[in-house]
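Bumping with the actual sequence this time:
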Amino acid sequence: MRRSEDVAFVESDERVALLDLAALQDPPVVLSGTAAHIWRLLDGSRTLDEVVAHLAVEYAVEPHVISPDVQRFVADLTRRGLVQAYDTNTPEGTSND
C-alpha cells in the first residue's frame, strides 16, 4: 500500500491533514492517533500485512485482533482515493490500476 500521488499532506506530531488534489471538491481529511500512525506507515515500503504486523508489535496485540480494523480503515482511504495498492512484482511498485 502506498499514498496516492494526488494527495498533499501536512504532518504534525499528533495529526496528519490530507487533501486529494484530484478531488478538490472534497474536504480535507484530518487523521489523528492510530489513524495518523497508519497513514505514516503507508509509505510504499510495506504491504498491508506488514503494516498490521508492525502495529501489532507496537501495540502488543495479536495481528488477527487488529487486522480487521486496519483493513477497514485502509479500504476507506482507498475508496477515497488517498491510498492505492501496488504490485511489488512490477518495476518500482507501479499501481495495480
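The C-alpha cells above came from a reply further down the thread. Strands lie at 2-3, 7-11, 15-20, 29-32, 83-84.
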